[in-house]
Amino acid sequence: MRFRRHRSRAVLAVTAAAVLGAAGCDAGGSSTSPHSKSGTAAKAKPSPTPLWDRSPSSVAAVGDSITRGFDACTVLSDCPEVSWATGSSASVDSLAVRLLGKTGAARRSWNYAETGARMADLPAQIGQAVTRKPQLVTVMVGANDACAASTSAMTSVADFRTGFETSLKTLRRSLPKTQVYVSSVPNLKRLWSQGRTNPLGKQIWKLGICPSMLADADALDSAATERRDTVQDRVEAYNKVLKEVCATDDRCRFDGGAVYDYRFGTDQLSHWDWFHPSTDGQARLAEIAYRHVTARTPVT
């Protein structure tokens, strides 16, 4: 029995050695397989191509009156030549001009924004933009959704989300690789605090400009404060939606709240209505957009 045990151990040892040899392991446990890193130098994998192109060759803009340059040049009129997104004015140096040059912007940028547009209008604008097959689409919308006759008439957060999701789906069905830059909704409460310092501005606001925020501009009672805070909360909720929905798309960049956070003053407001951006305000929006579109990594 003792002999057989020694013989069995010997057989097991030989068998184990054969198995280890076939597996390509030496006595120290290191692999000698021709496919191992130590046997043959592993080929370096090429770096993946970044999804975000920092120099797109065409731009289409969608959104509301801000992107149309409303009241920036003359009263109650669009002025697309000073649009932050696609304008040709040297005073603004729009995103399109910065990316494509003046000649390139004239040929390969398009503005489908509409004065008065809300999120519900965005899918149709996107539908127009895709016909041009742009490499970049800019989005700025939401101010009109909050600027309603009353706080109860503001676009619900759920409907705002649905509208943005539908817009991205509309884009992706036709242009799966087109990039999207999304601006945050501006700070409407700051607009009130800045514009109310101008007597003329307050008189113009009485004509019905953004009544949910700007009505009774001098009122500081609890009801007026609560109304303005409700509007501001809704704007912040819209921005959260823009950030969250954009984050689900690899080729979408939200500005990280840069437009909302920008500390604009009266020089950046139209002196026709003290609400829309002036030419100087449009230039500041162009700077913000260019910084985010050309950044190596997105701002979160």
Briefly summarize what is shown:
With 300 residues, the chain is an alpha/beta fold. Helices cover 45% and strands 7% of the residues. Helix 6 (157-174) packs parallel to helix 10 (222-247).
Describe this entry's structure for a reader.
With 300 residues, the protein is an alpha/beta fold. It contains twelve helices and five strands. It has helices at 2-23, 65-68, 95-108, 122-129, 143-146, 157-174, 188-195, 199-205, 211-214, 222-247, 258-261, 279-293, and strands at 59-63, 109-111, 136-140, 179-182, 252-254. A five-stranded parallel sheet has the order 2-1-3-4-5, with helices on both faces. Helix 4 (122-129) packs parallel to helix 6 (157-174).
Major sheet size, sense and barrel closure: 5 strands, parallel
Structural class: alpha/beta
Which quaternary structure do these chains form? Answer: single chain
Number of strands: 5
The portion of residues forming beta strands comes to 5-15%
- Based on Cα principal axes, name the global outline: globular
Give helix % range. Answer: 40-55%
The number of helical runs is 12
Order of helices and strands: HEHHEHEHHEHHHHEHH
User: What's the arrangement of strands in the largest beta sheet?
Assistant: 2-1-3-4-5
Radius of gyration: 29 Å
Low-confidence stretches: 1-41
Report, as a whole number of angstroms, the end-to-end distance.
74 Å
What does the average pLDDT come to?
88
What does the secondary structure layout of this molecule look like, with pairings?
Blueprint: H1 2-23, E1 59-63, H2 65-68, H3 95-108, E2 109-111, H4 122-129, E3 136-140, H5 143-146, H6 157-174, E4 179-182, H7 188-195, H8 199-205, H9 211-214, H10 222-247, E5 252-254, H11 258-261, H12 279-293
Parallel strand pairs: 1-2, 1-3, 3-4, 4-5
